[in-house]
Each structure stands twice: as structure tokens, then as C-alpha cells.
Amino acid sequence: MDNMKLKIKELELKIEELEALLDHIQDSSQPQMDHDNVRALINQILAEKEVVPAVT
């Protein structure tokens, strides 16, 4: 039974680590998503105004 408790504790720790990693990934990817949104918006405005070709 102690072996089972140990395995459960190890799994709980791994889950906590994975949740922390997921939070970190989400936090670090948010600025990139915002940057991409800004780029898409600028490209759309430039294309509508026909100022310059859209930058990719």
C-alpha cells in the first residue's frame, strides 16, 4: 500500500509541474499572439488604403 501512495504522490507532483509549465507557456505565448495580431491589422489597413504591398 505504501508503494501505491508513493506512486500517487509522484503523479501529483508531475501534474503540478505540468500545470506550471502550461501556465508558463501560455504566459510567454501571449505577447507573440498580440504581436501577430498587430501585424495582421497593419497589413489589413495598408492593403485597404493601397499604400504599400502587405508585409508577410
Helicity range of the residues?
over 70%
Count of individual helical segments: 1
- Mass-distribution shape: rod-shaped
Task: Report, as a whole number of angstroms, the end-to-end distance.
Answer: 59 Å
Mean pLDDT, all residues: 81
Number of DSSP E strands:
0
Radius of gyration: 23 Å
- What portion of the residues fall into strands of 2 or more residues? under 5%
Order of helices and strands: H
Structural class: mainly alpha
Which parts are unreliable, with pLDDT below 50 for 5 consecutive residues or more?
none
Largest sheet properties: none
The oligomerization state is single chain
Can you characterise this structure?
- The protein has 56 residues and is mainly alpha-helical.
- Helices cover 86% and strands 0% of the residues.
- It contains 1 helix and no strands.
- It starts with a helix and ends in a 7-residue tail after the last helix.
